[in-house]
Amino acid sequence: QQKKLSSERIEALESMGFEWTRTAWNRGDDRWQEVLAELKEYKQIHGDCNVPISYQANVQLAKWVMNQRACYHRFFDENWNQSPRITTERIEALNEIGFEWRLRRRPEWDECYDELVAYKEQH
User: Fold this and answer.
1) Conformation bin of residue 52: beta by default, left when phi > 0, alpha when psi is -120 to 50
2) Is 94 exposed, middle or buried (0-12, 13-18, 19+ CB in 10 A)?
3) Do 48 and 100 contact (CB within 8 A), yes or no?
4) pLDDT digits (tens, 9 = 90+) for 68-121
5) Distance (Å, rounded) from C-alpha 109 to C-alpha 114?
6) What is the DSSP letter of 22?
């Protein structure tokens, strides 16, 4: 459960010069931009943004790419009850460089059902 600061505590913090900015988020954004630049370099060399998780030349980049995909899918999940770790601006930045959000195409339910019916008819 998150508690709110009282107005007295807010005033006390502001009186000593406390700034209500999310500097950790800002630093995180700078780091995000740095890794995005690394991904752009990867794409220039490899032709895509699909950094394999086993990419030994830059393991952190591989994990970051995997994390961006996970954050993206959570961003659109109505049941996700936490603050998203990805913004529309970051999604747009990744889209601009041709980032693929889903690597494997999942067959639609109807497609799988049709295959099952065909299999059952044959066997």
Assistant:
1) beta
2) buried
3) yes
4) 999 998 888 876 666 667 888 999 999 999 999 988 766 667 777 778 888 888
5) 9
6) -
Structure tokens at 65: 């790419």
Question: With a threshold of 0.70, does the pTM exceed it?
Answer: no
Is residue 50's pLDDT more than 90? yes
pLDDT at 29: 84
Of the candidates 19, 28, 13, the residue with the CA atom closest to the CA atom of residue 83: 28
Residue with tokens 């600061």: 5
Comparing CA positions, the residue from 33, 34, 51, 28 lying closest to residue 98 is 51
Residue recorded with tokens 């299999």: 119
Q: Which residues contact 62 (CB under 8 A, 6 or more apart)?
A: 51, 52, 53, 54, 55
- 79 backbone dihedrals φ, ψ, rounded to 5°: -90, -5
Angle at the Cα of 28 from the Cα atoms of 34 and 95, rounded to 5 degrees:
55
